[in-house]
Amino acid sequence: MNFVKMQGLGNDFILVEDMKENIQLTSSQINKLCDRHFGIGADGLILVQPSKLYDIKMKFYNQDGTEAAMCGNGVRCFAKYVYSYNIVNKDDINIETIAGKISAKISNDVVQVNMGKAQFDPRYIPVNIDNIKVVDEKLYINDKEIIFSSILMGVPHTIIEVEDVSNYPVKEIGPLIEINKIFPAKTNVNFVQILNKEEVKMVTWERGVGLTMACGTGACAAASILKEKKKIKDRVLIHVPGGELTIKFNKDNIFMIGPVQEVYKGIINVEIIQEG
Q: 0.90 cut: is pTM over it?
């Protein structure tokens, strides 16, 4: 099977062309492909498929093999891929995803994505809370009170503000919040430290993946919550372990801007991912 490995701020993905829509991979096989010791190694796998609605269709899988509606850095890599390999012959691309239409604009190795609008209603995130919005709610983890906010940015995200993200026990708290019963579909968890009204540091524990170098939907979700709380301006720089993402607001739309890069391409021996 031919593939291309791409990364956006260290968030890395396997991209496979599936223009006849005949590639069938189980969650176990995807997990093996994403394994960094026995496979290619990636945070997720993306299939490039034809679309009856827009220019092209993105089908995204997490590292553990579960399908997800969207991935911010993934869609930036996807847009750059279909443009670079002449699958879509224009630099302004409309992409079909489970989360709806995503529009991307390519300028050299920088991709801007219109992520649309954030959804605050807990019924759609989903979160088992009877409020109009999930902002500054309380959750208890190991008898410790956690103040959190949640939002749907294509996929569910939970945001926790901390004083020093570098010294916060992300690996301990992240997985416990991800699977907490208050989140029926689980959740991504973003730990954010506000530096000023134009800069934020963020570390993400990603649902179905674990600790990641970057998370595009997480950056948009964190910025949306902080904007809602009037703690940042309409344009903010998000510092993540893999680099920097710019998030800007134009009315209700959220735009994400950042670099992407092709790492390598190759052929994977499919025998290594056979079942059993």
A: yes
